Amino acid sequence: MTDPQNPDVPPAYNPPPAAPAYSSAPPAPAGAPAPGAPVPGRTLGIVALVVAIFFNIIGLILGIVALVQSRKAGQKNGFAVAAIIVGAVLTVIGIIVAIFLIVAFTAAAGFGTDAIQACEAVGYSGTVTVQGVTVDCNTLNP
Question: Does residue 67 contact residue 84 with C-beta atoms inside 8 Å?
Answer without folding.
Answer: yes
